[in-house]
Amino acid sequence: MALQRAAGAGSSSAAAPVAPPPRRRLHHPPRRRGHRLPAVPGDATHLASTGSGLLIVHGDGMLSLTNPSSLAMTPLAALAAVLPKYIRYKYLAADRQRLVPLINKAVVSDNFTALLIGNRTWKVIVTIGFSPPLAHFPSSIVDIASFQGKLYYLTSDVRKRQEELYIFGVDNAKQIGIRCISSTLKDIGEESWFGPCSTERYATERYLVASNDRLLMVRRWINLPPIYPSDSGIVKRTRRFEVFEAADLSSGCGRWIKVDTLMGHALFVSKGCSKSLSAGAEEDCIYFMHEDIKNGKPEDPFLDSGVYNMRDGTVAPLLTETLVAEPLAVHGGPWCPTWLFPSET
């Protein structure tokens, strides 16, 4: 896998997609400089973006946090020690003899380190300071995020289209989830129904993003091709986004409030890492990538990528210029592309 950095003009924290080994050309936005990151360790079996850094799983099972610019590395021995007890592993499609852990997301703050892991069964592994790591098993979890020094997680009931927000807590050395928001109502006119020939079928993805002093839930609407006819020529594409703010969290009666502005920020969303930026990107826009997996391998991350404008509801191409990225096949694995925001050193 080649890690490429695209730094925005006048910004030291612009995002770069972190993709599995794409044997193709990678692209970067106009007027941005491309920077090659230093190579990751050769024994790495899994990479996860923490925003400004990388969480690396090494071949011997050790975990470390790495600054991709300086290569400064911090071992996570306590977390690595308990990981085999909870984590599921999956064979690499290209190498049936090598197992890689399914770490879906890594969140690192001054107070804790949290991993969202799993495939069909989800777990959140959290270590706080020097305390032993704890495991939590929420149902239907879709994302985790750090907000104001606390860990929040989002669950979703697809059938009822309800999103519930929880805050992580500890009671008698056990992890518990304290519900902050119970649900959100279905939008009028958005009732789901099955029509095999319909061109108005949608799938949704949800992301939890801390943006300045707001915690946001981003709902992504993806238009699906009809089942019949199979040769309709219609492709799977993201059509729009909705953004909700988690309000009244301290009152114990939180609620979702739909918003139509990002307050001058831009959001970068993905299953592995989401972030809000106040500079170096288009205001009130949402940057997104294609995150589907086919036959055990991630598809081209730019198939369904773009920049969604909250002000006029339009979607613009994410990339327009080309930059060659050399594939490092040894780091290929069953994880989706995500965002990385390395800092200047």
Mean pLDDT: 76
CATH architecture: 6 Propeller
Count every helix, treating DSSP H or I runs of 4 or more residues as helices.
1
**Low-confidence region ranges:** 1-12, 19-35, 91-97, 321-331
Radius of gyration: 20 Å
Amount of helix = under 10%
**What does the main sheet amount to?**
5 strands, mixed
Return the CATH class. Answer: Mainly Beta
Strand content: over 45%
Strands of the widest sheet, in order across it, are: 24-23-25-28-29
Task: Count all strands and give the number.
Answer: 31
The geometry reads as: globular
CATH topology: Neuraminidase
How far do the termini sit from each other?
A: 23 Å
Number of domains: 1
**Class based on secondary structure composition and strand pairing:** mainly beta
Which features would summarize this protein structure in a list?
Neuraminidase, 3% helix, 345 residues, 1 helix, single chain, four-stranded antiparallel beta sheet, mainly beta
Polypeptide structure, described:
The protein is mainly β. The chain is about 5% helix and about 50% strand. It contains one helix and 31 strands. It has one helix at about 75-85; strands at about 5, 15-20, 25-30, 35, 45-50, 55-60, 65, 75, 90, 95-100, 105-110, 110-120, 120-130, 135, 140-145, 150-155, 160-170, 175-180, 200-210, 215-225, 235-245, 255-260, 265-270, 275, 285-290, 295, 295-300, 305-310, 315, 320-325, 340. The strands form ten sheets. Strands 24-23-25-28-29 form a five-stranded mixed beta sheet, with no helix packed on it. A four-stranded antiparallel beta sheet has the order 5-6-7-8. Strands 11-12-13-14 form a four-stranded antiparallel beta sheet, covered by helices on one side. The longest helix is centred in the first third of the chain and has 10 residues, at about 75-85. It is globular and about 55 Å long. The protein starts with a strand and ends in a 5-residue tail after the last strand. This is KIB1-4 beta-propeller domain-containing protein. It comes from Oryza nivara (Indian wild rice).
